[in-house]
Amino acid sequence: MKAMITTAYGSADVFQLKELPKPTAGPNELLIKIHASSVTKADTMMRTGKPYIGRLFTGISKPKMEVWGCGFAGTVEAVGSAVSKFKKGDKVFGENINQMGAYAEYIILQENGILAPLPQNLSFEEAAGMCDGAITSLNFLLNLGKIKKGDKVLINGASGSLGTAAVQIAKYYGADVSGVCSAKNAEMVKALGADKTIDYKEEDFTQHENTYDLIYDTVGKSSFSAAKKALTENGQYLSPVLGMPLMVDMIKTAVYGKKKAKFSATGALPLKETKRLMEIMREMIEEGKLYGVIDRCYDLEELSEAHQYVDRGHKKGNVVVLPTAA
After folding, report:
1. Domain shared by 206 and 317, yes or no
2. Closest CA to 262 of 228, 236, 234, 225
3. What is the dihedral angle through the alpha carbons of 91, 115, 31, 42, rounded to the nearest 10 degrees?
């Protein structure tokens, strides 16, 4: 099978096309033919090996896995002897967070992994990027933020992978949603359900005093200290981008003050909880309340270009790689 491999950390040029043996499914495993995989900001950060603390999981001096990529959608090609929930020909989507391997034509996944049947109203291309953005945003808005009807929620980075999912999720739960994005993406964000959009070049949301119950900073471009004034009395600043300032603010606000700064490593959630969030996501998709936004599609051989594009920091929704024709 064709796969894009990397044996070192660095720029997008580290990827190399290589022919690898087609994997074989074990007793509890599925062999999946990948029709689409995703390239996320997290993928590009792992590629660089920065922040360095991430290398504790991906490899200290070089990547532990040759083939990277987590999110995917495809068709079950073969099942192991002990598999009972899936069969050959099933259309599926999911994530392989621990072993990765989605930058290839085939992937092996455990039957009890982060995997689900593909909803009929979702294409392979849309599904490839759904898990990262939607599951992460569900974790932050539901588990950390305890979002409820009537909450005033601000999504910073509303046009990205996490942001486009978050806008739809927040609206689904009855919140009043403000999306921070560029002027050129405002109509898209409104179409996703935002009640208001804020052009970050023209307006500073942190100056909206005592306004938001939840500020979900998907891009980590603000901070708790900057956004604190914009939070209501018991408001929360949530961000998936962990740095030293956020760590300090989390420790401080855990001890005193009603306003809180919070972070969660969604990829480190217990499998049972991740699958629960995935089921909520699937229900929303099937109800027509959540769909994927695709910015660009690249062939597998163009993976370096896809990473370069994501590195620029201006993608809308998801960037998709197509290892094989659907």
Report:
1. no
2. 236
3. 110
